[in-house]
Write a structure and sequence with these properties.
This protein is mainly α. The chain is 43% helix and 10% strand. It is built from 6 helices and 4 strands.
Length: 204
């Protein structure tokens, strides 16, 4: 992506995120109240994620898990045990992702791009997979509309790099429209039999 394309994409991202935040402000308020009532405080989940050129930024999401991390015997609770029905619903509707619009306004993220993953994955990528950080991470992306959590990590990263090499405004529009359709259908939210995504341990 050349410099002119990056500027154009940034302008599109800023105004699209601003418009979305204005239009969806009642939804954001209602979800924030529900999270506070059902899951307690804090309402927002914050975590450092690698973005463009692997630089860390703080991502914002609505919290979906309970704060309890250990059972009565002191054992660490797996993620699926910390994810109540309300949290599952937030993820199924993708409402938990809405605060990332603030990340887009700040310039840490784009509307469309490879999803921002865990910082601990950085040293597990192959050089080719690491190319996903040549662009800003996105709220949705090429991998999200082509299998999302029902494809392998390797397939996701191949699609991320494909997006880096084939970016265009029309591709972003296509991804956005397909994303809206998948959110309505609630397709590919989680792999069958899994409440959360398996950790990426590196490619063999």
């Amino acid at each position: 992506m050349n410099s002119v394309a990056k500027i154009f994409k940034r302008i599109f991202d800023f105004f699209a995120a601003l418009a979305a935040l204005i239009l969806l402000s009642p939804v954001l308020l209602v979800v924030a109240v529900l999270v506070r009532l059902k899951l307690g405080s804090p309402v927002l989940f914050r975590q450092h994620r690698p973005g463009h050129k692997s630089r860390l930024f703080t991502i914002f999401k609505f919290r979906t898990m309970i704060s309890k991390t250990h059972d009565e015997n002191g054992n660490i609770l797996p993620d699926d045990k910390r994810l109540p029905p309300f949290g599952l619903w937030l993820r199924a509707t993708s409402l938990d992702e809405l605060p990332e619009l603030f990340n887009v306004l700040k310039g840490d993220m784009s509307i469309v791009g490879p999803r921002p993953l865990m910082a601990k994955y950085l040293d597990r990528y192959t050089p080719q997979q690491a190319r996903r950080h040549e662009v800003k991470p996105g709220i949705t992306g090429w991998a999200q509309i082509n299998g999302r959590n029902n494809i392998t990590w390797e397939e996701k990263f191949q699609m991320d790099v494909w997006y880096v090499d084939h970016w265009s405004l029309w591709l972003d529009i296509k991804i956005l429209l397909k994303t809206l359709w998948l959110v309505i259908k609630r397709d590919n939210i989680a792999k069958e039999g899994h409440a959360t995504v398996d950790e990426f341990m590196g490619s063999k």
